[in-house]
Amino acid sequence: MTLISLNDSAWASFFELDSHVHWIRLGLLKEVANPLAGLWNNFLRVSALRKAIRKSNPQVVISFIETMNVLTLAAIRDLNIPIIISERTDPAKHRIGAVWNCLRTLLYPSACRLVVICNNNQAFFKPLLAERVCTIPNPIFPPPAVQGETPFLPQRPFVIAAGRLSHEKGHDLLIRAFARLGDNHSDWNLLILGEGSQRSELERLVFEFRLGERVFLPGRVKNPYDYYLKADLFVLPSRYEGFGNVLGEAMVCGMPVVAANCSPGVAEVVQDGVNGLLAEPDDVDSLTVAMDNLMSDIDRRASLGEQARLTSERFSLDSVMTLWENLIRELTTI
């Protein structure tokens, strides 16, 4: 397997790569000063990608994320190599800009297959690729057999959330909802794992609501399972999601979950009242009510947590990888 990325050798992989993976880093992931420079940089990316792909002589090319899909489709034109492209978020809500959207419309029909993350996302691309759109969810890894160390944990009981500290993840909504629950649940704390551009805004909210001793933002962690297994409630407050990997990770740990019903992928994982609770997206009132419901009822948390663990088994690594292997085999034996 050859892995091609746009970053350079100064970047280290956040996860350990298998020794059999040959990683080619093109060194073309740089910021540009103006649209003309951006156009030239993307021309260089397409050229470098084409050269690297031809040199690796692949049986099949798999590309992830919309802009990279466009660049890769442009790079392999006329090379007669099967290509699978994949979108891993909700295309109806995730904006990529007018130019990229036009290029997507122009180039996506040349792909052999487009993989989306949930069934409801197929309709968005049917006009472009007809029956060549298929669904493969993200796998959910089970928690490790041996737990690692957690440098910091708030006192229990505590709510946990995880994801980039960015607008679409809705952590600001979670802090506002948690602040409203202060009088009824003053013994609860809140832990938000992740890092991102909205950190200062979230810290301002914590200060504004005088929650400095109850809300904690420790940053990115290597193994979130160590934290999930010690928490009492997981909340996904996102404004939109593709699949919500962190949601699945929490569920496989047997955690009760509250999730904003923000995208089709979330609704395919969480059945309201069966294996979790769904709240209205971008709605602090709805999120507050759902959190209060579970924070007030330890027995219901236990019941929903057990159902969450059972539901998550259909997203096991073996199940998901079988879908990928079947798709690759289909294209390489035509």
Low-confidence stretches: none
- Radius of gyration (Å): 21 Å
Shape: globular
Strand content: 5-15%
- Name the helicity range: 25-40%
End-to-end gap: 20 Å
Tell me what the structure shows:
By secondary structure, the chain is α/β, with parallel strands linked by helices. The chain has 2 domains: 2-139 and 317-332, Rossmann fold (3-Layer(aba) Sandwich), CATH 3.40.50; 158-313, 3-Layer(aba) Sandwich (Rossmann fold). Helices cover 39% and strands 15% of the residues. The chain contains 12 helices and 12 strands. The strands form 3 sheets. It has a 6-stranded parallel β-sheet with strand order 9-8-7-10-11-12, sandwiched between helices. The protein has a 4-stranded parallel β-sheet with strand order 3-4-5-6. A two-stranded parallel ribbon has the order 1-2. α2 (66-75) packs across α3 (98-107) and α5 crosses α10 (284-295). The two termini are 20 Å apart.
Give a quick summary of the entry.
The protein is 39% helix and 15% strand.
Give the topology, please:
Elements: E1 2-5, E2 22-25, H1 35-56, E3 61-64, H2 66-75, E4 83-86, H3 98-107, E5 113-116, H4 122-129, E6 133-135, E7 158-162, H5 171-180, E8 189-193, H6 199-208, E9 215-219, H7 225-228, E10 233-236, H8 245-252, E11 257-260, H9 264-269, E12 277-279, H10 284-295, H11 298-311, H12 317-332
Helix pairs in contact: 1-2, 2-3, 5-6, 5-10
Give the key terms.
2 domains, Rossmann fold, globular, 334 residues, six-stranded parallel beta sheet, alpha/beta
